[in-house]
Predict the structure of Lactase-phlorizin hydrolase-like.
Amino acid sequence: LTFPPGFKFGAATAAYQVEGAWNVSDKGESIWDHYSHGPRSMILNHDTGDVACDSYNNWERDIEMAAELGLHYYRFSISWPRLLPKGFDYKISEDGKAYYNKLIDGLLQKGIEPMITLYHFDLPQSLQDLGGWTNPLIADWFADYARVVFSLFGDRVKMWLTINEPIVICDMTYKAGYNPPAIYSPYFGAYLCNKYILMAHAKAWRVYDEEFKAKYHGKVSLAQHLLWIEPATDSDKDLADIAMQASAGRYSHPIFSEEGGWPPALEKAVEELSKKRGLLKSVLPPFTQEEIELVKGTHDFYGFNLYTSRLIKAKTEDTVDRWPQTDAADLGAVLLEANEWGKSSVNWLSVHPEAIRRQLNWLKKNYGDLEYVITENGMATSSGLQDEDRVNYYKKYLAQVLLAIKEDVINVTHYTAWSLMDNFEWMYGYSVRFGLYEVDYSDPQRKRTPRQSAKYYANVIKSNSFDVPS
Ligand code: BGC
């Protein structure tokens, strides 16, 4: 029941969710700063990330926690506007640089590898004002930013993720009009974002590959958000296949498939949808052959976050659609949850451990025998230190990961728990808790205390097995 020798366990956070210190020194404003301070904020309780876990000041405690767990690596993200206050690369913040240097060096001193995400939702507001992810030029702005990060920290950081969850960025911002900058543009904005976010990833990957790889020997990919979708009945099988191509495939096929470009099933579905909406041509921006080549193959591993699953079913008159702003709705389908799946304390996350193994098999079937890195997995519970539900979640999902490795011979090399500590859970503010460590938000120091799950995870890492006491 043990993981292969050399298998790595980590935990993750993201800059806006933990750092706080939103306006120290010369830090620029991010879209989350801007939105959470504005009159249009729909964040629960009008919470903001102004202080969050105050990791900007508590970084030593964060490293200590990572060491207490025995993590092999700690995944965190860099705040683009903290490092480049103007968004563009002509001005680097000394303060931002110093903060990330302290964090990286502190981790390495304890033998913990840093795994860095360049972008985890906090775009500089200055670039949003110029169109953000719908402006084709963002691919170059992002590549310039990536070059700065690689040149400052590449000597010590060997695992990189360019963008966290393109699907969440494009869909929650433009399709649902929900996450900042909350621009409701489901017909156009979401599709422009699809293309330019992929171009941005690809250009950043190529910057590393061409300018840094020979010197630093690191690996670069991105963190996909995967929602495992199964047919509700036998007659929904085709729908489930298309839905997987429209979600996982939309952001993976261009990068990881042999032919590159959009998945054909997605092209067809969007073509039909565009016609139905009375548009003159498909809203999916085409890739030129040159762009297909530029994006194709821009990976050193496949990184993904997985939390939950859905059933898909053709829409009938009496079906209630809990998730109307999704690709499934565009396909004339609804998403459901199976009654037997377990519940968490957030409405979107149900517990279905087999999903992670099935998802890994789907990936291997579609993209081949790659190195697979699980960049996030975890569950929300209410507050309190006795989080038996979270322990069970980790135990069951880890058991499935091990089956995928041993029985299905899939090369999974890393598993990352989300999250090291409770943090600002985006539109849910501080009401939702994902941490191995509980954070006391009423304490000005934001005291962190290990939960039962932290003890369990430390034992997992120590014994290299999921079947351990907590
Ligand atoms: C995101 C995290 C988030 C987590 C739980 C992931 O989609 O990368 O930032 O906190 O899910 O919702």
About this structure: The mean pLDDT is 97. The pocket of beta-D-glucopyranose is lined by residues 14, 17, 164-165, 168, 225, 305, 376, 418, 425, 434 (CB under 6 Å). DSSP finds 17 helices and 13 strands in the chain.
